[in-house]
Structure formats: structure tokens, C-alpha cells
């Protein structure tokens, strides 16, 4: 019976027409899907580029405004006496050596200021800026016990702390570290592109069989 039907010219033509229409419909649907996907890819890619540009613009704007606020607060802080500013920093928990390092003077100079000796205008401004930085970090980024936070390494086994950054006039990296918006290793690379090699160690910390942490050679 099937053989008879397929030999019938009319039936054969109908079957071929149906198959051709079916294939054409499938091809049309596939083409439409591809065009839609291509359109979405272009649209989303364009939106992604716009968002990336906006993110960069807002990041730059935020840093500028943050810097303006820092300078404004520092100007207010600078109205206090040097002795008073040193007392506030000490109350926050900063060691005299750390204050001296971040202000850019010697420990004996800080000790003289504590006794009432006069500090230069530049040193007074640096003390005020340090206090203002602490104010902003505590208020904007909710950092408690700020002096010990300044002593915290950006990455394990790397002796670079916010104190190190601030003393190197990279307060911008200190603020960025406090914000948590950037990977600390990215900040380290910006501060010192060779930090991985500089602080590379042949030793590693591991948990010994007794549960205590110990040190051994790597590899």
C-alpha cells in the first residue's frame, strides 16, 4: 500500500511540499532565534560598556569628593593644639613610633611636641590630616579600634599595612582598603608592582599532627 502511495505523483508532490515547508519553517525559526540572540548580545554588550564607563566616572568623582572632605575635616582638626592632637591619637591607641612614621618625623620630635615644644606648620598639618583620615575611616567605613586596624597587613605574610601606605603618602590606598571595594592584592600591586617577589618566602605555615601551627619548607 505504501509503495502504491509513494508512486502516485500527486501524493509524492504533496509529501515533498510538506517536507519543504517544514524545513523552511524550522530554518526560519532558527534564523529568527539567532537574530534575536545577536541583538540581545549587542544590546547587553552596549549596556555593559555604559555601566563600565559610569562606574569609572563615579569612582573618580567619589575619590575627588572624598579628598575634599578629608581636607575640610583636616582644616578643622588643625585648629587644635599639637599637644591636643597627639593626645587624641594616643587615645585612639597609636604608638608614638607609628605617629612619627606617618607624620614623617622622628620619635624624638614627637616626644618634644608632647612636652610643649613648637612643631612646624607642616608637621601640624600632617597631624591634623592623620586625625581627619581616622575620622573618615571610622565614620564612612565603620572601622572599630582604628589604631590596630592601621597595623593590620593588607595580605597574610606581606608586611605592608595601612601605616606603611600612609607613611608613603598613599592615603588614597588606605581609604580604598578601608572601603573594601578593591581586592587588597590589587592595592598591593599598585603600591609595589614587585611585592610578590619582594616578600616571597620559602617557608609555609601548616597544622601539625598535634593540632598546633608550625613552619616548614615549601614543596
Structure in a nutshell:
This protein is mostly helical. The protein has helices at 2-7, 9-77, 82-92, 96-103, 107-114, 121-141, 146-150, 162-167, 171-179, 184-191, 195-198; strands at residues 203-207, 213-217.
User: Into which percent range does the helicity of residues fall?
Assistant: over 70%
- Evaluate the radius of gyration: 33 Å
Question: Which regions have little confidence, pLDDT < 50, spanning 5+ residues?
Answer: none
- Mind summarizing the main beta sheet? 2 strands, antiparallel
Globally, the shape reads elongated
Task: Give the total of beta strands.
Answer: 2
Succession of helices and strands:
HHHHHHHHHHHEE
Provide a descriptive summary of the structure in words.
The chain has 219 residues and is mainly α. Helices cover 71% and strands 5% of the residues. It has helices spanning 2-7, 9-77, 82-92, 96-103, 107-114, 121-141, 146-150, 162-167, 171-179, 184-191, 195-198, and strands spanning 203-207, 213-217. The chain has a two-stranded antiparallel sheet. A hairpin with a 5-residue loop joins strand 1 (203-207) and strand 2. The longest helix has 69 residues, at 9-77. The chain is elongated, with a radius of gyration of 33 Å. The model has no long low-confidence stretch (mean pLDDT 84).
Protein traits:
219 residues, 11 helices, 2 strands, two-stranded antiparallel sheet, 5% strand, mainly alpha
Secondary-structure topology with pairs:
Blueprint: H1 2-7, H2 9-77, H3 82-92, H4 96-103, H5 107-114, H6 121-141, H7 146-150, H8 162-167, H9 171-179, H10 184-191, H11 195-198, E1 203-207, E2 213-217
Antiparallel strand pairs: 1-2
Helix pairs in contact: 2-6, 3-6, 4-5, 6-9
